[in-house]
Amino acid sequence: MSEIPADLKYTKSHEWVRTLANGNVEVGITDHAQSALGDLVFVEVPDSGKALKIGDAFAVVESVKAASDVYAPVAGSVVEGNAALGSQPELINSEPYGAGWIMRLKPGGAPAGLLSAAEYQAHLAAEG
Amino acid sequence: MAMLKHPEKIIFEYSRPGRGAFGQWPTERGTANNVAADIPEPLRRKQPAMLPEVSELEVVRHYTRLSQLNFSIDTHFYPLGSCTMKYNPKACNQYAMLPGFLTRHPLAPESLGQGFLACMFELQEMLKEVTGMQGVALSPMAGAHGEFAGVAMIRAYHRARGDLARNEIIVPIAAHGTNPATATMCGCVVKEIPVNDEGDVDVEALKAAVGPNTAGIMLTNPSTCGVFERRIKEVAKIVHDAGGLLYYDGANLNAILGKVRPGDMGFDVIHMNLHKTFSTPHGGGGPGAGAVGVSSRLLPFMPIPVVGRDGDKYRWLSEKDLPQSIGRLSAFMGNAGVLIRAYIYMRMLGREGMHRVGEYATLNANYLMARLAQAGFDPAYPTRRASHEFIITAKKQARDLGVTAMDFAKRLLDYGFHAPTTYFPLLVPECLLIEPTETESKEALDGFIDAMIAIQKEAESNADLVKSAPHTMTVRRLDDVRAARQLDLTWKTSQGLRPTSENAGPSS
Amino acid sequence: MPFNPHTPGDVQQMLAAIGAKKVEDLFDEIPKELRIEALAGIPDALNEMQIGRLMMARAAQDGTPLNFIGAGAYEHHIPAAVWAVTTRGEFYSAYTPYQAEASQGTLQLIYEYQTMITSLTGMEVSNASMYDGGSAVAEAALMAVRAHRKSKSQRILVPTTVHPNYRKVAVATASGQGLRFEEVPCPRGQLILADLAKYQGEDITAIVIQQPNFFGQLEDVDAITDWAHANGIFVIGSVNPTSLAILKPPGQWGAKGVDIACGDCQPLGVPLSSGGPYAGFMTTRMEYVRQMPGRIVGRTVDANGKQGFALTLQAREQHIRRGKATSNICTNQGLLVTAATIYLCLLGPEGLARVANTSHQRTNELIAALTRVKGVKLAFEGPRFHEAVLLLDRPVAPVIAELANRGIVGGFDLSTDYPELGNALLVCATETRSREDIQKYADALTETLKAAVRAA
């Protein structure tokens, strides 16, 4: 049963979004996603300053069996990628919502169209 | 299989300064071993190349022992789905390595290559006949390379007609990974369509997917699910009516060799895997040969060179003869030695043998599937005939016993069988894609069935034994997470140094 | 039917287990109108004795003329042990090492090959091989485009001193993805910095440098590499592996070395065999390893902590990444890599240097002998490895045809690919050509040229 913190927002492609105190957003992949991928061996994070539209692939997460793109849930410009993932990609497996964050973004507008925890849970159940 | 008690060292660990296989070196007196004086100093190598210094016996022993660590068709039943691991006749190797073929330079005059060119021309003709196509080009060097040629020809065809918008290639989600990768390599966009519960392409989804941007569809028939695409004529009509072309992935040609021809099914271009259907050696990963066959509308675009005949003389057709060709895909003419082996094999099968291939491959697969189903295993498509391969799903075992298809695969190694394919098709969870081929006896198949039954019993009573398999190989299950996280891709001494003639050997 | 073990009794038992009456029933899902009865166009089967006679007759028809062509495929002595071991069934009939525990032999061999090729090229990491040297250049260009973070142009400079077929393969393979290959004319038989001046300051993604170049001449690799890096251009070095025993490896060209080194392993224990199969090699810097196509073998440990080998970084490859793969390549030339690895061990650093030096020496002797013949001149001065361009006083093709009648494969006619050179012939002599062979060629050429003059 995967963990889905109630205070975050989600996308159908298994990203989560946390709004920080300073208005920036933090993005990562969900517990369900990291479990499906298996042990992560490599993560490519974006450079700061990169401009993103909703749905742009901004990172790649690679395990032995799969390599997946991670998609921007919100438009904006990248403030920073999580440099720790360079040497410790497994942080995404152990702390997908904490130390395993992938990027922080200055949003172009207010985040919209995202799923609540309950809606994401229903989406996972429907995916089967 | 010879199980070595002690791990085989890395070849560099046998190296000693001054040791060598002296009988292999030029011994010309007057040839300095230091670099020729007329090569300017800035262009010379300063340190000798870092290669092992070992005797001939050490080399032969080391690599012979390494070979004994492998499973191979010569030693084991190898039911890898979609790979067609049939017996590689020794005659094919022996006659392909005759000096006249082996020492011939690719750019030598055609007058000195008529024997070789005759074999290549006749191979083209035989491949046309078995596939029902109008032209065959032999130069693509692997299946994926042949796929590339096929999709590139489709694009070239549309562009030649001025239809520049067609850049979409439709691919079923069950397709082999090379298919979408190939489409992307050709600058196309991939559109995936689903497959239904019976293993056929979803025809309604296909109708929705075609349109003015459709360049073509890539299909395997029988499909990667191991079943024949029953509505293939309808699929062909839908795609053709929309202005697209049909590409046939010939990986599964073994199922229908001599029984059905892709050209008759409506395909415009096909690639063949000569290292599968026509029994050229897999060689531990290659070389393959991915000859392509085309319908008449794609003839002008074939990759060069192609063998042509003027009267009784054979010659290479190149840029002048095929000005609309998609070009050269190989520095010379493709994997000639592989092509000669395929030619010999086809001549040994002959007309009668060709359709026996399809028949016995299909008989063996259906027999295996029936017996495994009777033993309690779950075919993925139980209402369908097997083609030359079929899928067993271990979904039930994974759910109830925690034992996965991969675990079965690893435990089969302990029973002396190479595992079936487990990594695709993606749409069947916990799949074992099993292809026995026609060269296996009933006893070999029965042995495999007995092993599967035994492993099922183990899974029920002692799951950990299966989950931690293999137990009797030279290594246990390997840590591939570590292999990817801590990349160790070249040997270094224990001090972390690259090998040189000074520091190689056991003291490092 | 050959290779098929089924007896009629077997077939009956199997059909009974399936619940079918005859084998033909197993094809009942296939629409009747698609099924064929027989393939009329395929000849009757030959047994092994018959096919053996046919193949021997055809091979004898082609014979074994004396070879003086290089042009990207080189005749070297291949020790008997190379193919005796390589054609062992455990190597010959093994599959791709996806089930690592059943393939430790092949995997360890590839790891050793990767080590040797990186050493030879002076680079940091290698893959398990590509199809051939031509496709390796194409894949290197694609890789440069992926790896080069700053350049957007996808323009690849290719001097005309790069093998003409390699250039054609690069265009055929990679232009579909938007790469633009721009030829840099080299009328002097070498790439000179002056030829590159017009690209100064432009957005170029990569340049290909072949060493030795197609004419056998040695390029000024240090100056060109430094110029390229100063202009933000990736350097792809396409190199002859035998030459690397005595020439500076691409990892040491210029101040920083090349970014990608590639070439063909054919000279390392792989016979000419009418054009293939060969094996391309590709090496690069560690920082680009994830952009490199093809299979890669890594060393790891098993569940007991024992050393073992496995394919790694597979997530880049077609069977996982599918539409986003680094390439669609699914094969490596496993059998040829096996041969090349065994060859390199038998030769070792000393033996390979002797092959290189002796080949260089023989080519010098060939040039001396042939330019003594009236009507034959050397095209380019300057240092070379083991090939040279000769200029004849008449069209080359009839001369080659006459030499062929005398059992000599005299060289490669350059007039199609390089019309600007005139009557140009590319010749090569390796350690396999004795002084008697060279004299035989010189005599035959003398007679050929005299005969034509007499006829005129």
Question: What's the topology here?
Answer:
The complex is a heterotrimer of chains A (128), B (508) and C (456).
Chain A lengths: L8 E2 L4 E5 L5 E5 L1 H7 L2 E5 L6 E2 L4 E7 L3 E5 L4 E6 L9 H4 L8 E5 L9 H11 L1
Antiparallel strand pairs in A: 1-2, 2-3, 3-9, 4-6, 5-8, 6-7, 8-9
Chain B lengths: L55 H12 L22 H7 L2 H4 L11 H18 L3 E3 L5 H18 L7 E5 L5 H8 L3 E5 L9 H7 L4 E6 L12 H10 L3 E6 L11 H4 L3 E4 L19 E3 L11 E5 L2 E5 L18 H39 L3 E2 L10 E4 L1 H7 L3 H10 L16 E4 L7 H20 L1 H5 L12 H6 L23
Parallel strand pairs in B: 2-3, 2-4, 4-5, 5-6
Antiparallel strand pairs in B: 1-7, 6-7, 8-9, 10-11, 11-12
Chain C lengths: L7 H11 L29 H15 L3 E2 L12 H7 L2 H4 L11 H18 L3 E2 L6 H15 L7 E5 L4 H11 L5 E5 L8 H4 L9 E6 L9 H10 L3 E6 L20 E5 L15 E5 L11 E6 L5 E6 L5 H4 L12 H38 L4 E3 L8 E6 L3 H10 L2 E2 L2 E2 L10 E5 L6 H21 L1
Parallel strand pairs in C: 1-13, 3-4, 3-5, 5-6, 6-7
Antiparallel strand pairs in C: 2-8, 7-8, 9-10, 11-12, 12-15, 14-15
Helix pairs in contact in C: 3-11, 5-11, 6-7, 11-13
Q: Rough shape of chain B?
A: globular
Based on Cα principal axes, name the global outline of chain A. Answer: globular
Quickly count the helices of chain A: 3
Q: Which pair of chains has the greatest number of interface residues, and how are they split between the two chains? A: B-C, 206 and 200 residues
Query: What class, by secondary structure content of chain B?
Result: alpha/beta
Structure summary, number of beta strands of chain A: 9
The helix content of chain A is: 10-25%
CATH class wording of the largest domain in chain B: Alpha Beta
As a percent range, the share of strand residues of chain A is: 25-35%
Task: Tell me which CATH architecture of the largest domain in chain B applies here.
Answer: 3-Layer(aba) Sandwich
**N-C termini distance of chain A:** 12 Å
| Tally of individual helices of chain B | 15
Whole-number total of structural domains of chain A = 1
Beginning-to-end CA distance, first to last residue of chain B:
32 Å
Output mean pLDDT of chain B. 91
CATH topology of chain A: OB fold (Dihydrolipoamide Acetyltransferase, E2P)
CATH class annotation of chain A: Mainly Beta
CATH superfamily of chain A: RNA polymerase II/Efflux pump adaptor protein, barrel-sandwich hybrid domain
Q: What is the total number of structural domains of chain B?
A: 3
